[in-house]
Amino acid sequence: MPTSSIPYSFSITTIESAEKFAAALDQEKPQDSSTSVSGAEDETSCRKLEESYKIVNINEYLSDPSLEQKLLSILDEFRSPKNENVECFLKKDAIAFAKNGQAVSYLVFRATTDEFVGYFTLCTRPITIASTSNTMSNAFKERIEPLCTPDENGTYSFFVYLIAQLGKNYGVSESTRIDGKDLLRLAYKTVLEMKRRIGGVAVLLECEDSENDFLKNFYLDNGYAVFGERVSDENKKLYQLVKSIW
Predict the structure, then answer these.
(1) Mind listing the pLDDT tens digit for each residue in 196-232?
(2) pLDDT greater at residue 190 or residue 40
(3) What is the mean pLDDT of residues 146-169?
(4) What is the 3 state secondary structure string of the chain?
(5) What's the pLDDT tens digit per position in 51-100?
(6) Smallest Cα–Cα separation from 107: which of 153, 147, 28, 53?
(7) What is the mean pLDDT of the chain?
(8) pLDDT tens digits, residue range 128-139?
(9) Domain that residue 127 falls in
(10) CB 40 within 8 A of CB 28
(11) What CATH number is associated with residue 225?
């Protein structure tokens, strides 16, 4: 995932993107939102996932110099040959971003062996939707207006959660590696816990255009919906995806 997503202020400026965004928030709520990460997952599946992995907030290592040295050793184990950006962020930027309050990374370990299998990075970002009352559908207004009142220019503004990074550690044996779907579920579960503490309605992420749209299809298969596109500072096409938080 692009590091440029972290400081980026999301802005939806077309009616089509705004309608797609609102429609994604209207997806059906799972029957048991206290345990389900998506409507298709049951309590047993979620419990098994929680028992298999443990998640550690990177800030737990930053209160003591000796623990920070331990953290550096852990991060040095991470390898991501398929996505250098993911590896570079973790080793060069994750600590600074956490200390500055910009974004917090979470390390994922196998519960039984303590092997470092992956990480994800979360933050909150503002999002604005530029519109006028006579151009947006009633369905859009019914979903978005309870979240915030548009200003005098018809612009809606609120905050969303952002999964800024998501990376598997290819430095461990293939049999030990975490499945990408499970890593994404753990990131979503962490967002869900935050939503219960401080609120929020949606989680966003961005992914680069890839061969055969592999990354985009991966997120679509896991309940995210494309609502827009943009070009990164490196002149790469990025898909913007959103999922409702239940």
Answers:
(1) 999 999 999 999 877 778 999 999 999 999 999 999 8
(2) 190
(3) 92
(4) CCHHHCCCCEEECCHHHHHHHHHHHCCCCCCCCCCCCCCCCCHHHHHHHHHHEEEEEHHHHCCCHHHHHHHHHHHCCCCCCCCHHHHHHHHHHHHHHHHCCCCEEEEEEECCCCCEEEEEEEEEEEEEEECCCCCCCHHHHHHHCCCCCCCCCCEEEEEEEEEEEEEECCCCCCCCCCCHHHHHHHHHHHHHHHHHHHCCCEEEEEEECCHHHHHHHHHHHCCCEEEEEEECCCCCEEEEEEEECC
(5) 999 999 999 999 899 999 999 999 999 999 988 999 999 999 999 999 99
(6) 53
(7) 89
(8) 998 665 678 888
(9) 3-244
(10) no
(11) 3.40.630.30
* Number of independent structural domains in the chain: 1
Task: State how far the alpha carbon of 232 is from the alpha carbons of 22, 64, 177, 227, in Å.
Answer: 24, 36, 30, 16
Tens-place pLDDT, residues 176-189: 999 999 999 999 99
129, burial (CB in 10 Å: exposed 0-12, middle 13-18, buried 19+): buried
Question: 235's torsion region: left (phi>0), alpha (psi -120 to 50) or beta?
Answer: left
CB of 124 closer than 8 Å to CB of 162: yes
Query: Contact, 222 vs 74, CB < 8 A?
Result: no
Counting Cα atoms < 13 Å in the Cβ hemisphere of 226 gives 16
Show the tokens assigned to 227.
């609502």
